[in-house]
Specification:
Blueprint: H1 2-24, E1 37-40, E2 46-49, E3 62-66, E4 69-72, H2 76-81, E5 87-90, E6 96-100, E7 114-120, E8 125-132, E9 154-157
Antiparallel strand pairs: 1-2, 2-3, 3-4, 5-6, 6-7, 7-8, 8-9
Length: 165
């Protein structure tokens, strides 16, 4: 009798654990379009991003969930500058990091090159844009040629303070 009750106890324990975990899940938002990133800031703001290779919302590539509705973030104008956002991440300083590899399906990397944006959600202002232009002709690695030449990594400090290189 003891041997038969052990599997039943294990199964009951697994079911209780699964049920308890499932009870803690709460749907916050959903989309009928593909998200490739979701970020929640320390202040509780929710950001999502859409890639541009599928049927995505034409109004935004990065959006904030406000009162159950999506709004272009940081603005509709800024969204027009994004090429194909792949990821959004909120850091410990409540800044949102937006990764745009700038490559559409079956097309070369955009002339702007890949970019990583650091945005302060409070005013919605870009603090830093890290740009990665296309590699220089004949160069197979991003590390070639040396910094300062085409294909190298460049930094633009937009706000506050002077530019950094």
């Amino acid at each position: 009798m003891h041997k038969k009750s052990l599997p039943a106890l294990i199964l009951a324990g697994l079911l209780l654990t699964t049920t308890a975990f499932a009870a803690r899940l709460t749907q916050i938002a959903s989309s009928d379009k593909q998200w490739t990133g979701v970020a929640v800031s320390q202040s509780g703001r929710i950001f999502v991003n859409y890639p541009t290779w599928n049927d995505y919302p034409r109004d935004y590539r990065v959006a904030e969930l406000v009162d159950g509705k999506l709004q272009a973030y940081p603005s509709p104008e800024a969204n027009r500058d994004f090429v194909c956002v792949q990821s959004v991440i909120a850091d410990g300083e409540n800044h949102l990091w937006i990764l745009d590899p700038a490559k559409l399906r079956d097309k070369p990397v955009a002339k702007t090159g890949a970019r990583l944006y650091e945005v302060d959600p409070a005013p919605g202002v870009a603090l830093l844009i890290i740009a990665r232009p296309k590699p220089a002709p004949g160069c197979m690695k991003w590390t070639c040629p040396p910094t300062g030449l085409p294909g190298s990594l460049s930094f633009q400090k937009l706000w506050p303070g002077p530019a950094a290189t």
